[in-house]
Design goal:
The structure holds two protein chains of two kinds. By secondary structure, chain A is mainly beta. Chain A has no helices and eleven strands. In chain B, the strands form two sheets. In chain B, strands 2, 4, 5, 6, 9, 10 and 11 form a seven-stranded mixed β-sheet that branches. Chain B has a four-stranded antiparallel β-sheet with strand order 1-3-8-7, with no helix packed on it. The chains are: A mainly beta, B mainly beta. The A-B interface holds A 4, 6, 32, 34, 36, 41-46, 49, 89, 91-105 and B 4, 6, 33, 35, 40-45, 48, 55-56, 58-59, 91, 93, 98, 100-109.
Chain lengths: 112, 115
């Protein structure tokens, strides 16, 4: 059973456009929501993370929006660049937990 | 400061052989996590270890899989009598403390192919 549902599976965006990836969860005990970026042949790298006490967090071109009541969170990549082409994973965990629950990933392609 | 080091990067094993995957955490990190990634899927937690202790192995298959993190040396994920379904990328992550999922840094993974 997938604890974190992620969509879309793949995404193609023009350079300069906005990339939006969505995730939903059921476990209300989750209180940490990171996003990871993974390039082919590499391990996931932490991109940005949010806790449910805020509804939005921005770091450079990357923004997480969090909707606690809807149990959804999303990643927005502004001014998308070809170098952003990668697979993005959302994840969630609970306080005191030892592991992350990952979404199934979104393969983003930014075309010049 | 070197990152999380995993070796080998690629491993090919015949059915029935043993696979040993190694993970050296980042300097100063004493907590190690192993994840498995199947093609087109997200990472699935397998096991969480501290030095000389298995803290949480709730994601480990009950048979053929084992993990250790000795006082000296890297963490080892061992798969005995491998089967085709074990083919996957295995990632190790480390953190400086029981991180509640935070500050976990991943290695580049070991891609296991069972033929």
């Amino acid at each position: 059973q997938q604890q974190v549902k992620q969509s879309p599976q793949s995404l193609i965006v023009q350079k300069g456009g906005i990339s939006i990836i969505n995730c939903a969860y059921e476990n209300t005990a989750f209180d940490y929501f990171p996003w990871y970026q993974q390039f082919p042949g590499k391990g996931p790298a932490l991109l940005i993370a949010i806790r449910p006490d805020v509804s939005e967090k921005k770091e450079g071109r990357f923004t997480i929006s969090f909707n606690k009541s809807a149990k959804q969170f999303s990643l927005h990549i502004m001014d998308s660049q070809p170098g952003d082409s990668a697979t993005y994973f959302c994840a969630a965990s609970t306080a005191g937990a030892n592991n992350l629950f990952f979404g199934t990933g979104t393969r983003l392609t930014v075309i010049p | 400061n070197a990152g999380v080091m995993q070796n080998p990067r690629h491993l090919v094993r015949r059915r029935g052989q043993e696979a040993r995957l190694r993970c050296s955490p980042m300097k100063g990190h004493s907590h190690v996590y192993w994840y498995r990634q199947l093609p087109e899927e997200g990472l699935k937690f397998m096991v969480y270890l501290q030095k000389e202790n298995i803290i949480d192995e709730s994601g480990m298959p009950k048979e053929r899989f084992s993990a250790e993190f000795p006082k000296e040396g890297p963490s080892i994920l061992r798969i005995q009598q491998v089967v085709r379904g074990d083919s996957a990328a295995y990632f190790c992550a480390s953190s400086p403390r029981g991180a509640e999922g935070t500050e976990a840094f991943f290695g580049q993974g070991t891609r296991l192919t069972v033929v």
